[in-house]
Design goal:
Largest sheet: 5 strands, antiparallel
Shape: elongated
Structural class: alpha+beta
CATH superfamily of the largest domain: MutM-like, N-terminal
Strand content: 15-25%
Helix content: 25-40%
Bound molecules: zinc ion
Number of domains: 2
Number of strands: 11
Oligomer: single chain
CATH topology of the largest domain: N-terminal domain of MutM-like DNA repair proteins
Order of helices and strands: HEHEEEEHEEEEHHHHEE
Distance between the termini: 27 Å
């Protein structure tokens, strides 16, 4: 599932193509993704200009000049592609993907569910094999009250987040720290992959209970959250500059994973010598080093 760094990469990749561009035509090939796409969205979008594109948690927010915001969530397998239909050369017409992720599934059929044509002949395609993504349109002045956004926790890469904020939100929790890190109400944007990576970096066991994490560990954790996310965003940014580097199903951060998907391999801390383990934790695969992470 695309997490904060992947959605941020998509956002940065899309911005130069869509901001300032007028939506000419909106085509939709099914009524629902995870939920129903709102009726009347076509009329609200066609003719409007995208003024800004931002990210909140794992959501993309397209601010329109009509006072509306188009909200998109990529779900488990959503992808956004851009093609330029004005180009004469065939290879330039071929849609370019805005970021490729570790779990990217190649389309096996007609999975382009929404197509937006712009006045400069660019085309934006929303493709989603598993259809866990979501699309909505909402008034911008009350966007923070939208049901998908209103309960989101702070953005980890802004000054709304700190070790003190983290401490106060977990100090009374009896849940596992890993489960808490993935809770969007506590912190916006983390999923399974980066929760595993952050805990390994912090040398904290995914099975520690939140209320047992002390102040100094909270500080280490908060620093790791920022560091891991920035590194992944940087890796995503370099993949956007040269699409040829991005091949097959491999995500751009994959080679730098410390624990995720490394079951049975040597821990990357040279002095450790232990192997990475995988266990099922609350229905998700947790990768960790039982020696480094206490
Ligand atoms: Zn280790």
């Amino acid at each position: 599932m695309p997490e904060l760094p992947e959605v941020e990469t998509v956002c940065r990749g899309l911005r130069p193509h869509v901001v300032g561009n007028r939506i000419l035509r909106y085509h939709q090939f099914r009524e629902n993704l995870r939920w129903q796409i709102p009726l009347g969205i076509k009329d609200k979008l066609e003719g409007s200009i995208i003024e800004e594109l931002n990210r909140r948690g794992k959501f993309l927010l397209f601010k329109l000049n009509t006072g509306n915001i188009l909200i998109m969530h990529l779900g488990m397998s959503g992808r956004i592609l851009i093609s330029d239909t004005s180009k004469k050369k065939k290879d330039l017409k071929k849609p370019k993907e805005m970021g490729v992720f570790f779990h990217t599934v190649k389309p096996t059929g007609p999975h382009d569910h929404v197509i937006i044509d712009f006045s400069d002949q660019k085309r934006m395609i929303y493709n989603d094999v598993r259809r866990f993504g979501a699309i909505d349109i909402f008034k911008s002045e009350i966007i923070s009250s939208h049901q998908w956004l209103s309960k989101l926790g702070p953005e980890p890469l802004t000054n709304h987040f700190s070790s003190e904020v983290l401490k106060s939100s977990i100090k009374n929790k009896k849940s596992y720290i890993k489960t808490a890190l993935m809770d969007q109400k506590l912190l916006a944007g983390l999923g399974n992959i980066y929760a595993c990576e952050i805990l390994w970096e912090s040398r904290i066991s995914p099975f520690r209970l939140c209320l047992k994490i002390d102040d100094s560990e909270c500080e280490v954790l908060a620093n790791s959250i920022r560091e891991i996310l920035w590194k992944a965003i940087e890796a995503g940014g370099s993949s956007l500059r040269d699409f040829k580097k991005v091949g097959g199903d491999l995500g751009y951060f994959q080679n730098s994973f410390s624990v995720y998907s490394r079951e049975g391999l040597k821990c990357k801390r040279n002095e450790c010598g232990s192997n990475i383990q995988r266990v099922n934790q609350s229905g998700r695969s947790t990768f960790f080093c039982s020696k480094c992470q206490q």
